[in-house]
Amino acid sequence: DEARRRFDEFLTALADRRPGDTFAVKGPFVDAHGVELLWLTVTAVDAEFVHGNIDNRPKVVQVVRPGDAVSVARELVHDWLIVRGDAVVGGFSLKGVGDWRPGQGAA
Q1: Closest alpha carbon to 90 in 20, 3, 1
Q2: Where would a tag sit more exposed on the chain, N or C end, judged by fewer CB atoms within 10 A?
Q3: Model confidence at 1, in pLDDT bands (50, 70, 90)?
Q4: What gap in Å lies between CA 17 and CA 105, rounded to an integer?
Q5: What is the distance of C-alpha 102 from the center of its chain?
Q6: Is 61 in contact with 79 (CB distance < 8 Å)?
Q7: CA distance readout (Å), 98 to 2, 7, 26, 37
Q8: What 8-state DSSP symbol labels residue 99?
Q9: Is the pTM of this model over 0.70?
């Protein structure tokens, strides 16, 4: 899909992170209640994982809560988003992405 195909674009922008920029990825979380794709605000990326904090309130899984520090395997990233001022790049799974900002509970 487009998010995976363009993930290098996300990594390039992250390497040039500026004050005020926000980077987020959407990844799967699993517990006994099911599987849910959640957004996390990115704090770091290494060779295997994207690290960050849960940015929206889970509706299915109960293993994480907003603000929790988590890691998602890079190959499991379903979407990514960069917010730089008024410019938004990515957010391929969102409708009306122009109105969304991190911390507002993206779906």
Answers
A1: 3
A2: N
A3: confident
A4: 23
A5: 9
A6: no
A7: 18, 20, 17, 20
A8: G
A9: yes
